[in-house]
Amino acid sequence: MADNVTLTINGRKVTVQAGITVLEAAQQNGIDIPTFCHDPELSKPGACRICVVEIKGWRNLPPSCVTAVTEGMEVETESEAVVEARRTILDLLLANHPQDCMTCQKFGDCRLADYAYRYGLRKTTFIGEQTNVPVDESSAVITRDVNKCILCGKCVRVCAEIVGRNVVDFVSRGFTTIVSPALEMGLGEKEAGCVNCGSCVAVCPVGALTEKNMQGIARPWEVEKVKTTCPYCGCGCNFDLNVKDGKVVGVTSNPTSAVNGRHLCVKGRFGYDFIHSSDRLTLPLIKKGGKDGDFVEVSWDEAIRYVASRLKEIKEENGSEAMGILSSARCTNEENYLMNKLARVALGTNNIDHCARL
Amino acid sequence: MQLYRGHVLVCGGTGCVSSGSKKIQEVMANELTKQNLDKEIKLVETGCHGFCEMGPIVIVYPEGTFYCQVQVDDIAEIVSEHLLKGRIVQRLLFKAPVTEEQVPSYKDIAFYKKQHRVVLRNCGHIDPEHIQEYIAREGYEGLAKVLTTMTPQQVVDEMKKSGLRGRGGGGFPTGLKWEFASKSPGPKKYIICNADEGDPGAFMDRSVLEGDPHSLLEGMLIGAYAIGADEGYIYVRAEYPLAIKRLKVAIAQAEELGLLGDNIMGTEFSCQLHIKEGAGAFVCGEETALMASIEGSRGMPNPRPPFPAVKGLWEKPSNINNVETYANVPVIFLNGADQFATLGTEKSKGTKVFALTGKLRNTGLAEVPMGIALREIIFEIGGGIMDDKKFKAVQIGGPSGGCIPEQHLDTPVDYDSLIALGAMMGSGGLVVMDETSCMVDVARFFLNFTQKESCGKCTPCREGTKRMLEILQKICDGKGVPEDITTLETLGAVIKNTALCGLGQTAPNPVLATLRYFRHEYEAHINDKKCPAGVCSALLEYKIVADNCKGCGACARVCPAGAITGEKKEPHEIDTSKCIKCGSCIEKCKFNAIVKG
After folding, report:
1. Domain boundaries B541-596, CATH class
2. Which of A216, A241, A265 is the last residue of a domain?
3. Which of A47, A93, A169 lies at the smallest CB-CB distance from B463?
4. Counting C-beta atoms within 10 Å of the first and last residue's C-beta, which end of chain A has fewer, N or C?
């Protein structure tokens, strides 16, 4: 069939769809090739070169992420030359990477560490200059540590191609190349244009971009991930609540989310501190003792009875138009539908609105 | 048309302009008027002659007298003696190196004698700012022939027959490239010229842009017709202001005569050309980075495939060639591919322009047929090594190339033989080094360039060249260890095999080539802590040879560190702990009593 091609990967004959990449063909057949800059949702820069493979008859070691499969191609994903190249690339990345894994927020979830482990690189063999740029703490929610960046460019592409903000890009050249907002501004500076959606954090394979509020709180393996729907608006985004010792300590993307994939807005990703806030109302309050009285905690039954009786009284005294309902964008469609029924049918007024968005 | 009995050609190339040719033109014009010669002798500002070292250059026709290093004060004499009385001003003639013989005629100068000018056919002969002069030299005739008698496919076939290969460095067959772009489907295609000449010391493209811009335009238009493009870009670096100015003039003049724009020469073929000024990044000479830059993005290469012929500028099929390649095209169509293919070797046809620099007697631009031996270029055209020193190596192909030692100088120069020697044609930079050049230092110099110009996108190039550079620096500082050579070789091999673009893949070449031919110099630095060429200051020690020292004290007086002491008329001594190795003492000593090593 013309739409399929058959190639050999590590001595195994596989038949895949024509036009896909060697990396995709390998992944479809359970063969893992390491990647840093590749992301199925983003454009393919072919930049990090960790995914190089050996293809019989080819002069160089081509990157599998941007090399299309062809009929009869013979691919080796872990040959001696490939492993040497990967080890060298890892060695080079480690040479310009702080060796402070102990306190790194990404510890346990770091691609660089994973591959160093896989290829047995305890430490770099090169001694030389390292990038030394102050850590950017200007953002309210994201810590940006350029020194840990391996310049895979995923943050650049996710910001440009998915979020559409173009906040960061590559600046400078050669060894001094870094990813930065324009004019070397901090991520938190207004002119940088960052909306704190954290999509860059979600795609960063190392500890260069991390959630501020999770720092020092929990290691990746200590948290239970609970998939849930965002309570903020009607979009219905899903994500994982990171729960440690019964407390929500953070939010991370869940790529299986049907609506939003890994992408969230600032509220969904970072606006969860209300959950365990001491200021949070957990019971209804009724002001007792007249106008200057105090709010007193009451049971839900009492509160609902009180509201129902007051609404009745107002309706009898001043008519339906004296009342209105302000609902919330945080409610589901069904809840808002019921509020609408309550207003129009029970109270008999068209005075109903909601906050539109939060 | 006004007829003149003679012409005075004053070079207006960047080299001569910086040595004062504008002033010379002005004074010459005044002098001609003063002597009532302005109706008899025509003053012409030309493009570059290639012999910039001898500038400002003035050539008087019909005799073809070549005056070099002409100063403002010499003008009156040239006018009154030569132009008025017909007596050549001997003292301004070019003196052949070594023999000191005066050479009156342009064509007899060794630098020009061996050259075969196809690309530079008009450079230095015509006024680049007057399209009529280009037309008078059979300009736009090739285009006329193409548009009126040939189909695009015939143009592609003729290009393939010519055997022309890309002059930007890669050496890809131009006809084949055009065929790919012509067969790529789509109503919109682009023709692009890479004029982002970035190799240090190479300036052949600038010379064509400044001296004969219409040959580029004509070449591009023929290419546009062949592939079916109706729009094109010339990506030229902003550091070439004169080239940009002359291109603008050329485009305006060609548009005015209907040779560019809509319905060219009254045919159905239309093509617009734009100039895009580059901001000077070396990597923008790489075609995918160049297109990214035209599109307004950061100049960073993208993986190929897709090749530009399939998905190029704004994702449309595009064809990119460099200036020198396009400048060959009009000649191919004027005289036919067969005629063009008579020059050169079996697999590399035509000529190549080389930029001769370094320790040569004659430096400048030289256009020679492919297949000529390097020895001829260096010792005949280049006049051999300066100060009678010994030849050591020639770096060919710019920072991406490699060095070639004495034993390979008789190899015929073509794309394939140079690659076999570990170098490459590149854009044609030739840097000649003599015995006083340290090859480790040379490798470090070129690697420093590529590291600084790396776009930072792929890991091997960005990080790998940095570590190679640090190792070379360490070796030059006398801190090298034997394993460093192995590290350089393995790192170099990985970078070559895994880097994204041509810049990265060729970046280790200067190191690998010097390791191949001058390994002993690396070993001397590492094992003996000596720099055989006496360049790496950390490895040098200055000593006074007591037998030669007269005790004059000149060295002690000039030493800025107070490192030299001694009684009058007694041999002096250098305190090596204080010596900063500046070399002032050696320069001052009249008795060759100070040695370094």
Report:
1. alpha beta
2. A216
3. A93
4. N
Contact between chains at B490 and A84 (C-beta distance less than 8 A): yes
A64 lies in the same domain as A166: no
Distance of CA B76 to the CA centre of its chain: 34
Contact A85 B452 (CB under 8 A): no
Classify the phi-psi angles of B238: left when phi > 0, otherwise alpha if psi is within -120 to 50, otherwise beta: alpha
Cα(A105)–Cα(A209) distance, rounded to whole angstroms?
9
**Band of residue B541 on the pLDDT scale cut at 50, 70, 90:** confident
* pLDDT for B100 beyond 90: no
Q: What are the residue boundaries of the structural domains of chain B, listed by start? A: 6-113, 131-341, 351-434, 439-528, 541-596
Instruction: List, for residues A114-167, the tens digit of each pLDDT value.
Output: 999 999 999 999 999 999 999 999 999 999 999 999 999 999 999 999 999 999
Note the CATH number of domain B439-528. Answer: 1.20.1440.230
Task: Say which DSSP state A283 is in.
Answer: S
DSSP string, B477-519: TT---THHHHHHHHHHHHHHHH-SSHHHHHTTHHHHHHHHH-H
- Could you give the 3-state DSSP secondary structure of residue B52? helix
Q: Which residues contact A14 (CB under 8 A, 6 or more apart)?
A: A6, A7, A8, A25, A28, A29
A108 and A146 belong to one structural domain = no
CA A85, CA A258: separation in Å to the nearest integer?
38
| A45 inside 8 A of chain B by CB | yes
Over the stretch A335-352, which tens digit does the pLDDT of each residue have?
A: 999 999 999 999 999 999
CATH class of this structure's domain B6-113: alpha beta
The number of distinct structural domains making up chain A is: 5
Domain match, A252 and A304 both = no
**Which DSSP helix (H) or strand (E) runs through A168?**
strand A168-171
The ipTM estimated for the assembled molecules is 0.88
How many CB atoms neighbour CB A267 within 10 A? Answer: 18
Of 3.20.20.60, 3.10.20.600, 3.40.50.150, 3.40.50.720, which CATH number belongs to B351-434? 3.10.20.600
CATH class for domain B131-341?
alpha beta
The answer to whether A174 contacts B464, with C-beta atoms less than 8 Å apart, is no
Give the nearest partner residue to B298 out of A63, A92, A170, using CB atoms: A170
- Same domain flag for A211 and A325: no
Q: How many residue contacts between A and B have a Cβ separation below 8 Å?
A: 108
d(CA B21, CA B72): 9
Residue A2 is predicted with a pLDDT of 61
Note the pTM of the prediction, 2 decimals.
0.90
Best CA proximity match to B365, nearest among B543, B200, B120:
B120
> For residues B244 and B234, what is the distance between their CA atoms, to the nearest angstrom?
10
